[in-house]
RpiR family transcriptional regulator ([Clostridium] cellulosi), 297 residues
Amino acid sequence: MNKDLLSQIQSLYPTFSKGQKNIARFIIDHYEKAAFMTASKLGSIVGVSESTVVRFASELGYEGYPELQKSLQELTRSKLTSVQRIEVSTDRLGERDILEKVLNSDIEKIKKTIAELSRDDFNGAVNAIVNASKIYILGVRSASALANFLGLYFNYIFDHVVLINTTSGSEVFEQIMRINENDVVIGISFPRYSTRTVKALRFASDRGAKVIAITDSEISPIYRYATYKLIAKSDMASFVDSLVAPLSLINALIVAVGIKCKDQVYNTFSALERIWDEYGVYEKTDDENESDDENKE
């Protein structure tokens, strides 16, 4: 319903009451603002009661206003330009207590992710990764930070990880051209969704690879190509994508895979610690330096 919400409102417009038409016009013209308004606030803006707003949601087939609001928010996140994001977030956040508002919003996104994430899909993704012949990881723009983080730790565990270079669209396909049913590709995409990621996952799916999608909702364009769907709630904080919940999900994925491969992980990090120490990769604290001096004595 989300994708066709605005057209649905337009088609039903002649059947609405006068008050519902006021709501419909406001949503069609300002859906990016309506998405973050309470029923009471929306009713006040258009000059109708809160109960009229609730009935309007029911007319569209929703059980209540919160479901309509959720659909509007999903529609909004996938469509807004950076400039529109700034305008919307300014209205939502105001200019006071920004720190508390943003952090509380992130906390709420993690809670929703915990409540709604499919454990079957998560466990299936972990097993697919552990048993894969090759693991491809793809994330573009802001999602590239998540892809790099995941790739860093998976390279500690496996020797068959490919972090896909996304400099150009053609290079993406050159890197995954040999992907097959024994492989796994992990695609990470959040609004505004990357066309490059969508096309790459469709390519991988067509060739029988297991596709793990890390994204924000069922209307995400990479959701349809996924064998395992890992939904992490994201949000926009001004022009910035808030990806705290997706990063937390990725942390959980790394830990779960690490536990499945604990002997391998132990051996890897034992070797790495010796190398890091021998070549001075990390700065030592004062306590560590004192300990070394005592050992020399």
Summary: The mean pLDDT is 87. The radius of gyration is 24 Å. Residues 98-116 form the longest helix (19 residues).
